[in-house]
Amino acid sequence: MAAELSTSINIKEPRWDQSTFVGRAKHFFTVTDPRNILLTNEQLAHAHKIITEYRQGIVSPGLTEDELWRAKYVFDSAFHPDTGEKMILIGRMSAQVPMNMTITGCMMTFYKSTPAVLFWQWINQSFNAIVNYTNRSGDAPITVSQLGTAYVSATTGAVATALGLNALTKHVSPLIGRFVPFAAVAAANCINIPLMRQRELQHGIPITDENDNRLGESTKAAQQAISQVVVSRILMASPGMAIPPFLMNHLEKKAFLKKFPWMSAPIQVSLVGFCLVFATPLCCALFPQRSSMSVGRLEPELQEKIRANHPGVERVYFNKGL
C-alpha cells in the first residue's frame, strides 16, 4: 500500500518559489488557465473538500501530492483567498483570456464608429468592474454607491478618452487610429481600479507578519497594492492591443480580407487571444501576490502599534489583489 500523504505540505503558498519571476509565472499560468472556467460545481466542491480537510490535518484516502496541488489550484481559481467566497464566474482569473480576447478584439475591430466605441467601451468597463470587485484585496465590503461611482467614472473616462482621441486621429494615419482603444483602456484602468477599491484606500487592507498573524489594516499597503495592480493590468493589455494593429493594418490591404471583410473580427480576436495567453500570466507575475513593505513605510500610528506589540517585526505582508 502507498504511504499516506504527509500533512506538512504548505498549501497556503503556491507550489513554486514566489520570490522569483519564473516561479510566479508558473503559478499564474496555472491560475489563469482558461480550462478552469469549465469546471463543474461538483468538481469545485470536491477540490474545496480536499483543501479544507487537508488544512485540518485530514488527508483524503489515496490522495497524491500532484492531486493535492491540482485541488489547491482548482480551489484558488474559484474561491477568494481572503473571504473564502465563491467568485463570480466571469470575474475569475481563469476567465481573463477568453473574455478579454473577445472584448478587446471587438474594440479594436469596431473602433471607427461612435456607437461601436460607446458599446464596446461600456462592455469592457462592465467586465473590468466585475473583475476588480471579484479580485479586490482583503475582506473589505464595498457599498452599492461606491460600486456605482467606480463603474460610471471608469466608463465615462474610457468613452471620453476613446471619442476624444478618435476625433484627433481622423486626419492622421489609420494605423495611429488603431491604438485609440489601448489609450482608452489604459486611462480607464487608472480610474476604475482605484475607485473600485476605494474602501481599501480609505480604511486600509489587512497586513500580517511572516507567520500570517494579523497586525492591523494599512492604507499605505493598499496604495502600494493598487498601484502594482494598475501597472500590471496596463502592461497585460499592451501586447494584445499593440501587436495586432500592425498585423491587421497589413492584412486588410490583402485580397483575402478585401474579399471577406467579415473575417476581420475573428482574426483580430484570435490574434489578441494568442497575445493574452502569455501576457496575462506573465504580467500577473510582475509583482508578488503576497506583497510586502517595511514597517517604516506604514502610517506612523500603525508603526507605533506594531513596534509596541510586535517588536521583532520589521516587514509586513498583504494580498495585493489581482
Automatic annotation (TrEMBL):
<keyword id="KW-0496">Mitochondrion</keyword>
<feature type="transmembrane region" description="Helical">
    <location>
        <begin position="267"/>
        <end position="287"/>
    </location>
</feature>
<keyword id="KW-0812">Transmembrane</keyword>
<keyword id="KW-1133">Transmembrane helix</keyword>
<keyword id="KW-0554">One-carbon metabolism</keyword>
<dbReference type="GO" id="GO:0015075">
    <property type="term" value="F:monoatomic ion transmembrane transporter activity"/>
</dbReference>
<dbReference type="GO" id="GO:0006730">
    <property type="term" value="P:one-carbon metabolic process"/>
</dbReference>
<keyword id="KW-0029">Amino-acid transport</keyword>
<dbReference type="GO" id="GO:0043362">
    <property type="term" value="P:nucleate erythrocyte maturation"/>
</dbReference>
<dbReference type="Pfam" id="PF03820">
    <property type="entry name" value="SFXNs"/>
</dbReference>
<keyword id="KW-0813">Transport</keyword>
<dbReference type="GO" id="GO:0140300">
    <property type="term" value="P:serine import into mitochondrion"/>
</dbReference>
<dbReference type="GO" id="GO:0005743">
    <property type="term" value="C:mitochondrial inner membrane"/>
</dbReference>
<keyword id="KW-0472">Membrane</keyword>
<comment type="similarity">
    <text>Belongs to the sideroflexin family.</text>
</comment>
<dbReference type="GO" id="GO:0042541">
    <property type="term" value="P:hemoglobin biosynthetic process"/>
</dbReference>
<feature type="transmembrane region" description="Helical">
    <location>
        <begin position="230"/>
        <end position="247"/>
    </location>
</feature>
<dbReference type="InterPro" id="IPR004686">
    <property type="entry name" value="Mtc"/>
</dbReference>
<protein>
    <recommendedName>
        <fullName>Sidoreflexin</fullName>
    </recommendedName>
</protein>
<comment type="function">
    <text>Amino acid transporter importing serine, an essential substrate of the mitochondrial branch of the one-carbon pathway, into mitochondria. Mitochondrial serine is then converted to glycine and formate, which exits to the cytosol where it is used to generate the charged folates that serve as one-carbon donors. May also transport other amino acids including alanine and cysteine.</text>
</comment>
